[in-house]
Structures are given as structure tokens and as C-alpha cells.
Amino acid sequence: MLYRRFTLGLTFLLLVIVISIVRAQSTTSSGVRTWTNAEGKTMQAKLTGINGDNAIFQLASGQTTTVPLAKLSPADQNFIKSNPVPDPSITSKTSGTAKSITQRVWPKDIIVSPKSIDVKLVEEKPAENYYRYHSEAFEFISQDKLAGSVMIEVARIFEGTRTLVDALPWGVHPEPPKDLGYFQAKFFTTEEAYHKNGGPEKSGGVYKSADRVFLVPFKSMGLELRGKTWFKKAEFSSDTLVHEITHQMMHDYLGFLPHWITEGCAEYTNMLPYNAGTFHAGSHAKGIKEYISHKLYFATGGLSDLGSASEHMNMTPESWTAKFNGGHEAQHRIYGYSCLLVYYFCHLDGDGKGTRFLKFFDALTAETDKWKNYNEQLASYKAELEEFFKQPGVKKLENGSFTYPKTLTPPQRPEVPQKKDRKGFGQEQMALLYDGRTPTQLDEDVKTGFKKIGVKW
């Protein structure tokens, strides 16, 4: 009996050892293991998170890639179910601390989660040309009804851009305004209706930061009317949409960034190769070369025609506006140069990891968070004040003040944060980008940086 017990115990011990060896072979101490897709192809990577229906992996190079769970082998899907990892979007919102710059990596492929583009028609008023749709983070108000398949394609660009901006190591993590519940977008059937509702002339779409809404005509979304049905053109370019949605995602930063960074970041996202809901962020070098040859060269005599990087970076708002109003070619020059500089600081400057640029953005975070909190408190105060006005005995006066019974206590307006000079704040932080370099040295570094990827300046 004792011998039998010993044999069973030894068998169990050997089984544990074998299982441990197998696990050690499949997953290293760093979390790297061999993953197999449904077609049998493999890759060595570390699973870092689950975002909706997608798995996020970190490759040996440090880059991240996103793969739909459904495209992994059944064994790998079961492994993930048995070894759950947190949703990175939840972690970032609840951890209370942001990743340090050395922990951030540039993403490879950004794939939209099917959950985020599950678009629903929540309200329709045909007599008023009003149709309201919801995706995961956006509310779309359309002047005409759109087929479900069309709305999915539209939502894919909006939600994809949101996912992209969130994944970039800039540290910008867009969340819908709390008082609105969703990011707001309005679609207009004609350019005339678009202009009538606030869309600027000679524009294909605009983010109105004061109203926190993105306005865009159907034409700029690649929609055309065939009979009584709206269809999406196959050859449609999403550049304008991605550019303006990026502004919307960076709303909290817009008041503190120099124009060249605001527009350069929006141009950076729309120059990344995009196809069928996937931003190929890891192919940024290919994207910037195509951007230079297709969008920038026709507006310049070559990159050497652009002038000093420092002069562009230190352009005053008045000078920017004057150049912007100089016509289509002038706009392409200032937008294009801004994109080149953002690309340089993200991928070609110093260590090639964008360290100086990320330090610049981190320097803005405390200020933007302070004003974001203030705006949220102000919105709550206004809502409470409206309720207070409904109390018996409360009277509004013509000068904007009000009277109320001594038995009532009005809500307290939040204290306004110490205001920083909008022009000076972002400019001051640019010392982090220069990092002791003179304007001449920076100009040379920019040219040298682009030579690394085969771009002559």
C-alpha cells in the first residue's frame, strides 16, 4: 500500500515537471511566446492587452501590433481565455499613472474593434431631415438616412482615428465629453447646407472646438446619391476626415499647442497608410515619402524651398493666418512643413524614439488636465444653476445676477485656474525640442534625419 502511494506520488510529480517544462518552452519569463494564426503562420511576441475583439502584442523590435482574436488559432484563443490580460483602455483610465516615456512604444497596425463600429440608429425624424446614430464613442447627426453598411464604413474611420490617436505614444487619450456622452459629428447632404451651418468656405470639413462638434458634408465622406440611396465611393480618400477627427481627439490640447504642432499632428495621422479599417502606423516611413511626393512637392520647388525649421516652428499666430490666407499652395506648404517636423521629432530626432517630442507633450499634460477638470466642473455648475433657478423665490435680473430667499444656497462657481498665456505656453516648452541646439544646428539635424530614410532635403 505504501509502495502504491509512492508510485502515484512520483507519477504526479513527474507530470508536474513535464507540464512546467512545456510551459517554459511556450512562454518565456518575459511573457514572449509563439503565437499561431488560423492559417498556421507564427510569430514571437508578448501579449500586452485585449482591446474589444482584438489582441495587442509587443514584438521583439518593441513595436506593437493588433490582431483580431478570431484570426488566432483555437489553441491560442483558449490560452488567452485561460490567461486573461487587462483591457489597456480600462487600465489607462483607472491606474492613475501614465506610462513613462521609456515604456511607450510606437504601434505597428491599428485595427478597429468590431464592437466600436456596431452603429445603431437611435432616433429619426424624416420630416425634419434628422437621423441620429451612435457608435461606441461618437454620436452622428445626419440630414439623411444612411444604410447600415455605409454607416459602418463611416464609423470605421471615426473610431479608427480615435483608436490611432490613443495608441500613439504622445500620451493623448481621448475621451468623449462627460456632459455630452459622445464625440459629436454632423453630416450635411450638400455643401450649401454645410456652409450654412458653420462650415468654412473652401473647406471639406471642420472641427469647431468652441462647439465641440465636427461638421462635414456628404461629399467629403465619399458619399454620392444614386437614385434615392447614398453609396460610398470605392476610390474615396479619408485624409480630410482623419485630419479633422485628430483635432477633435486632441481637443484638450488645442489651446496650448503652437499651430505647427496642431496641424502637423493632424497631417501625421492622415499620411499614415490606411486600408479597410486598419492604420498601418508601422509603415510611417513609406507614408511620409508618399506624402512628400504627392502632396508637398507640387506646392514647393523641393524641400530646400521650405526655409528654416526654426522660423516655421516660431511662427506667430498672426503670421500663420497670413500665410494660410495666401491661397491653396501656401496652405499646402505650411501644413506640409508642419507634418515633416512632427515626423522628424517622432522618428528621426535624437534616439529615434521621439523622446524629446514626448517630453514636450508631457509638459503640457498638467496644464491641459487642469483646464479639462475646470471645464467639467463648470458644466456641472451650470446644470446645477439651471436647477436652482427653478426653485420658488429665485429671480433672474436683467444684469445677469439673481436674487433668492435666504433659506436657499446657490451652487458655487468653480475657481478659474491660473491662466497661462496661450501663445507663450507652448512656445516656452519648445526648449525641450531644441534641447540646447541652436536654430542652425536644428536645421542641420532635420536634414540629416531625413537622409536616414532616403529623403533629400
Shape: globular
Radius of gyration: 26 Å
Count of helical regions:
15
Structural class: alpha+beta
- Main β sheet profile: 7 strands, mixed
Q: Level of helix content?
A: 40-55%
Strand content: 15-25%
Number of strands: 17
The average pLDDT score comes to 84
What spatial order of strands do you see in the largest sheet? Answer: 1-2-3-4-5-15-14
Low-confidence stretches: 1-25, 87-97
N→C terminal distance: 85 Å
How do the helices and strands line up, and which of them pair or pack?
Elements: H1 2-26, E1 32-36, E2 42-51, E3 54-59, E4 64-68, H2 74-82, H3 88-94, E5 107-111, E6 120-125, E7 130-134, E8 138-142, H4 148-167, E9 183-188, H5 191-196, E10 206-208, E11 213-217, E12 223-226, E13 229-232, H6 239-249, H7 259-271, E14 274-275, E15 278-279, H8 284-296, H9 309-313, H10 317-324, H11 328-348, H12 355-389, E16 395-396, E17 402-403, H13 422-429, H14 431-434, H15 439-451
Parallel strand pairs: 4-5, 8-9, 9-11
Antiparallel strand pairs: 1-2, 2-3, 3-4, 5-15, 6-7, 7-8, 10-11, 12-13, 14-15, 16-17
